[in-house]
Write a structure and sequence with these properties.
heterotrimer; A mainly alpha (325); B mainly alpha (311); C alpha+beta (530); B: 311 residues; mainly alpha; disordered N terminus; C: 530 residues; ten-stranded mixed β-sheet
């Protein structure tokens, strides 16, 4: 176990280096970013000064190594545009993005599992057919369009839920301000629902279908037949044997899903005016705001890797046949 | 070894012995017809693909011919003077014929979907084959590259690459293709490892067959089935990804009609009630994606005998 | 076949019911803005709170409520006293002395005197600070600002290199800060929180979400009628419109033309359309960067450029794509400061074709005279992507086969524009004003000047321009030179003139506010209807 964790940690570092290197090289390939950071009427001299001040005049390998050296000391650099620490800018937006991602994951799993199980158990019925049709529809709607439709119908016409904006919940909670977190909670949830559905519907649909086919597979296995033939009651068969195994593909996807959900988050944050990292990093890429891009990318990758480590550990608990290697 | 073995066990969709043979083709046809829905899906896909192939012959108008005075004409609107319906499905914000754009759009959208998956599939399958067959540090490097890409949210990678390369259909295909390879690599690798120890591989090796030949001639046919199933699902998600990138302003140039871009261009007119701008491209995307999913489902059931018999 | 068994079924039913009920359960009355709070939605956020770094109109709008300026240019183009009560120029016109009101303070209570004004200017100009915002980057460069000195408690003198009639207006609108508060902060601290001098004070900033400011009761130089103003950031146009119609937002900027009808028919809000001052044009890039590119050689020819002016149907573009009537520009100067004798080029494709034939560029067998690329950034101006495509169509229709290339605004277009490397045709809009013709003409200050993206070098224009740097000129004499220059521009056009960009604001029926022509969202004088 210990050796395993050490190896995973090493791999994590390799991944982080790879990710930063990749974004660094890509952003610099796009040409000299200096022109985005000088005023409209800047002279050649001023442009040269700015280039030097931003460090873009030095050779790329040197720039990269300097950057890595600083990051190791915890200095992620200063946003080229806002002149604020890049890490602060990412961290202050992270809770909003996490709320959205977690809620989307909840939407994607909490509904997928019962739908998938019931569909599998009633395979071939009208229920199964309609659920799977809906699931397939859910997989064919682009999220930005779904988001706009939700705004127009649920937000504007029905007035059920807020149209846009964010009420912080996780942020006060992490600050230890439980009072504020508690009073904000209902409003925070109301604001979360539409964006979370927008982000989560694709995964919800896919997961429902995954659970269904995993259940079908498990239900046809010998040990389930054995359990049934031993006269175990059906609910017990489902819950203690089948369900547990059907969960595995969902958990697998959960790990990989994170990266996927983030893609939806960039779109949803724009539509719902959600103050998260997705919008920040999208703008930062366009402005070649390299410190901000790097800080966000490192943060995302780190979360992705940790989540997958967690998922792998969870496997061992769920399925004794799987061993860490 | 790799860190994601556990996940691969789950993700790999088949055991082994799934190599398609000639007799299985007849079996496929029978099963297809018996299941009914896949037949419909196939028909829809054939229509879409022929639209893509014969678009210029079929389209009633030049998809890029603007007519500002006739912009946002509703579908089936008769011309006040002549009484003819000039634009069957209406026009877009620049007065371009929606039907013609849809037909031309099939061309780009469908080919973006298939070509990107093809590129990603080839890169991924080769990487997975080589990694799984050779093992050792080659495998390690390939899997670390895969980890790096997985840890890098695809949309960010896509945005960065498109910012560097600029907009264009080819760049878009490239980006969407690159975004795919890891899935195929991991499945191909897992399957290859399972095949590596099989007798037929040993036999080929003892006969002095070269490594590349063993990989491509012996192993590849045996691991193709799950890859094809995944590919059929991925064409659908690529079409959606194209739409999302168009929404972010990173898709194809605005005069190039694709379904995703057309849908993205409808964003401002939705509130104004110009439903047709979103409805028709949305319908085209939905039918295509739905058909691909239904076919993919059928293909998986068909190729994976464990799931049959429930009917 | 497995039977559905009761417990799971119930569980599932309950789950579905709860989900269906959730919106009803959590739905209270939407907490719209209260009767003391004005909510304004713009598409972008401030980058930070450093006044010398302000670069966008959206940022400047918020800063103008937090910081006061020496004078203010009114919508009609007149200079109105603000922190300063009067000004005077020395005889060379290079020293401008402002006299301040007495008893001014900043929001932290510090007294605001001439010393603070001088500090504000010198701080923004200090190369150590490397500021790139509008003040050091545009105002100081355009005016040739040297430095500022406090000459008494209430008098401050600004020194510039050369007299120009636009100096006063530009320098008068710099946001004034207090010295003690800002000199005690690092740049990073200053970027995190503003200490203002204007009618509203800073309360809260949640990046990418909103900024809250509140009334400063002691402030008397301008009315401040709202207890609180919230500036929300809503990037997506449809979302802004939906929030306005839902009654959660009072004023939205940049309404999309196709949504005007939806707002007007809502009964909750109305769209105010104003003829803006931003000059939209297609530039002809003459620089050798494009030498050898198709079309580059052809546009060197004045006759070709004149001919192309006739090819584009600007009124139809305005009416269909911009949702409003607009007059075609006859020059780069906003009316009423323009040359009244110049008629805008009419839409006359036959004339365009005849002129192109005469210039020696007949249609080839394929109907094409020559090919050319038209570059534009996406998403910066009103309906820009569609407008550019329409222009491309009009030019192609007269045989100038135009290849429209849409680029990302920030990542691709701006860096290339700054290096004068967009073209041979490019689409841009440049901010203008109603207060001074020379402000509008500052784009073409020298043949290689930073904002002369075409590098147009007509010698007549630049020699006439020299004549303007004379403080002794009367208004009529100045206008005479301006008129001559605009005639040169008209006959040897470096730009394909289009229109002054209209602006659309969505305004809630509960707010008494009138949109301005100059893109400034100032709400001091606004009020809620009783």
């Amino acid at each position: 176990m210990g050796a395993y964790l050490v190896r995973r940690l090493l791999q994590t570092i390799i991944v982080l280096i790879g990710v930063t290197l990749l974004s660094f090289v890509t952003l610099h390939l796009a040409g000299d970013p200096t022109y985005l950071y000088v005023s409209e009427r800047a002279t050649e001299q001023e442009i040269e000064n700015t280039r030097r001040a931003l460090g873009f005049d030095r050779p790329l390998p040197e720039q990269y190594l300097t950057y890595v050296g600083r990051v190791i000391q915890g200095d992620f650099g200063v946003s080229l545009r806002a002149q604020r620490p890049a890490l602060d800018m990412v961290l202050e937006r992270l809770p909003a993005t996490l709320e959205l991602t977690i809620m989307a994951m909840i939407v994607a799993t909490a509904f997928a599992i019962p739908i998938g199980i019931l569909s599998a158990m009633r395979r071939g019925t009208a229920f199964d057919g309609s659920m799977m049709l809906v699931a397939m529809l859910g997989q064919s709607i682009p999220s930005f369009w779904l988001g706009l439709m939700l705004i127009i119908f649920v937000g504007l016409n029905l007035r059920w839920l807020p149209i846009s904006g964010h009420v912080p919940f996780l942020d006060p909670l992490l600050d230890g301000d439980f009072q504020r977190a508690f009073t904000n909670f209902p409003d925070a949830m109301r604001h979360l629902l539409l964006p979370a559905i927008t982000v989560g519907v694709f995964s919800l649909s896919r997961n429902a279908r995954l659970v269904r086919s995993a259940m079908l597979e498990v239900l046809s296995q010998d040990y389930i037949r054995t359990a049934r033939s031993k006269g175990l009651r059906e609910p017990k068969v489902i819950i203690s044997h089948a369900f547990r195994n059907a969960l595995i593909p969902v958990i697998t996807m959960l790990g990989l899903e994170f990266g996927f959900l983030l893609s939806g988050v960039v779109v949803a944050e724009t539509i719902f005016s959600w103050p998260g990292v997705g919008r920040l990093v999208f703008d930062a890429i366009n402005q070649r705001n390299i410190p901000v891009v790097q800080a966000s990318v490192i943060m995302f990758s780190f979360m992705f890797v940790s989540l997958n480590l967690f998922v792998d550990l969870l496997y061992v608990r769920l399925d004794p046949r799987i061993r860490l290697n | 070894m790799t860190t994601h073995t556990a996940q691969q066990d789950v993700l790999s969709l088949s055991n082994s012995e799934l190599a398609p043979t000639t007799s299985s083709l007849r079996r496929a046809r029978k099963s297809l017809i018996r299941a009914r829905w896949p037949v419909l899906a196939l028909i829809i896909l054939i229509v879409m693909v022929s639209m893509a192939l014969f678009g210029p012959e079929v389209a009633p108008k030049d998809p890029n011919r603007q007519n500002l005075r006739a912009r946002l004409t509703a579908p089936f609107t008769a011309n006040e003077e002549t009484g003819d319906v000039d634009f069957l499905l209406g026009t877009d914000g620049l007065g371009r014929d929606l039907l013609s754009r849809l037909i031309y759009g099939a061309r780009i959208s469908v080919s973006v979907g298939f070509v990107a998956v093809f590129i990603g599939g080839i890169i991924g399958t080769l990487a997975g084959l080589v990694g799984g067959y050779t093992g050792g540090y080659v495998d390690d490097i390939i899997m670390r590259l895969a980890d790096i890409q997985l840890a890098f949210p695809f949309i960010l990678l896509a945005i960065m690459i498109l910012v560097v390369l600029g907009q264009g259909v080819l760049n878009l295909i490239l980006v969407l293709g690159i975004g795919q390879w890891v899935t195929y690599a991991r499945i191909a690798r897992g399957e290859t490892i399972a095949q590596r120890g099989q007798e037929y591989v040993e036999a080929a090796r003892s006969m002095g067959m070269g490594h590349w030949r063993i990989m491509l001639k012996e192993i590849l046919p045996n691991i193709l089935a799950p890859l094809i199933v995944i590919a059929s699902f991925n064409v659908a998600s690529v079409i959606l990804a194209e739409a999302a990138l168009s929404f972010l302003g990173l898709g194809v140039p605005p005069d190039v009609p694709t379904w995703g871009a057309m849908l993205a261009q409808s964003r401002d007119t939705l509130l104004a009630g110009k439903w047709w701008l979103a409805f028709y491209p949305g319908l085209a995307i939905m039918f295509t994606v739905l058909s691909l999913n239904i076919l993919g489902d059928w293909l998986r059931d068909f190729l994976d005998p464990r799931l049959r018999g429930g009917d | 076949m497995i039977k559905l068994f009761p417990r799971m079924g119930k569980l599932f039913t309950v789950a579905v019911l709860v989900m269906a009920m959730l919106p009803l359960v959590v739905n209270g009355q939407a907490p719209g803005p209260d009767e003391n709070t004005l909510v304004i939605a713009q598409s972008v956020d401030v980058a930070g709170w450093e006044p010398a770094q302000v670069s966008s109109r959206a940022e400047a709008n918020i800063f103008s409520h937090l910081f006061a300026t020496l004078y203010e240019i009114s919508e009609e183009g007149t200079l109105e006293p603000y922190l300063a009560t009067s000004y005077s120029l020395d005889e060379t016109g290079t020293e401008i002395t402002f006299t301040l009101n007495e008893g001014l303070t900043c929001h932290d209570g510090e007294a605001l005197t001439a010393e603070d004004v001088a500090y504000t200017f010198n701080r923004a100009a200090d190369p150590e600070n490397a500021f790139t915002g509008n003040t050091p980057g545009f105002v100081f460069d355009s005016t040739g600002f040297i430095n500022a000195e406090a000459i008494s408690e209430l008098e401050v003198t600004l020194f510039v290199e050369q007299f120009q009639s636009i100096n006063l207006g530009l320098l008068a609108e710099v946001n004034i800060q207090c010295m003690d508060s800002y000199s005690s902060m690092t740049l990073e601290e200053a970027a995190a929180m503003p200490i203002g001098s204007g009618p509203y004070r800073f309360v809260e900033w949640v990046p990418d979400s909103h900024v809250t400011i509140e009334r400063v009761p002691e402030f008397t130089l301008r009315p401040n009628n709202f207890e609180t103003i919230v500036w929300r950031v809503i990037p997506e146009a449809s979302t802004r419109t939906a929030e306005l119609i839902a009654g959660n937002v009072d004023i939205i900027a940049n309404v999309v033309p196709d949504q005007i009808e939806a707002i007007n028919s809502s009964g909750v809000a109305e769209v105010q359309a104003v003829a803006g001052t931003r000059r939209m044009y297609v530039g002809f890039n003459f620089t050798s960067f494009f030498e050898g590119e198709p079309g580059w050689e052809e546009i060197q020819n004045t006759d070709v450029r004149v001919a192309m002016q006739y090819a584009v149907d600007v009124p139809t573009i305005c009416e269909t794509l911009l949702g409003t009537e607009c007059t075609r520009a006859s020059s780069m100067v906003n009316p009423p400061n323009d040359n009244p004798n110049l008629e805008p080029y009419p839409y006359d494709p036959e004339q365009a074709e005849a002129l192109l034939d005469a210039a020696g560029y007949p249609r080839g067998d394929d109907g094409v005279r020559f090919e050319i690329t038209l570059m534009a950034g996406a998403g910066r101006y009103l309906n820009d992507v569609n407008v550019v495509q329409a222009i491309g169509q009009y030019l192609s229709d007269v045989g100038v086969q135009t290849n429209v290339q849409i680029m990302d605004w920030t990542a691709e277009f701006v860096p290339a524009l700054r290096q004068h490397q967009v073209g041979p045709l490019y689409f841009v809009g440049t901010g203008g004003g109603t207060w001074n013709a020379q402000y509008d003409m500052a784009d073409l200050s020298s043949p290689t000047g930073a904002t002369n993206y075409t590098e147009w070098s007509n010698p007549e224009w630049f020699s006439l321009r020299e004549g303007l740097f004379n403080p002794a000129l009367t208004a009529e004499e100045t206008q005479e030179i301006v008129n001559q220059m605009l005639e040169v521009f008209y006959n040897d056009p470096p730009w394909l003139l289009l229109y002054f960009q209209p602006d659309f604001y969505g305004v809630s029926n509960r707010v008494d506010w009138n949109a301005r022509r100059d893109e400034k969202v100032f709400v001091w004088a606004a009020n809620f209807f009783e």
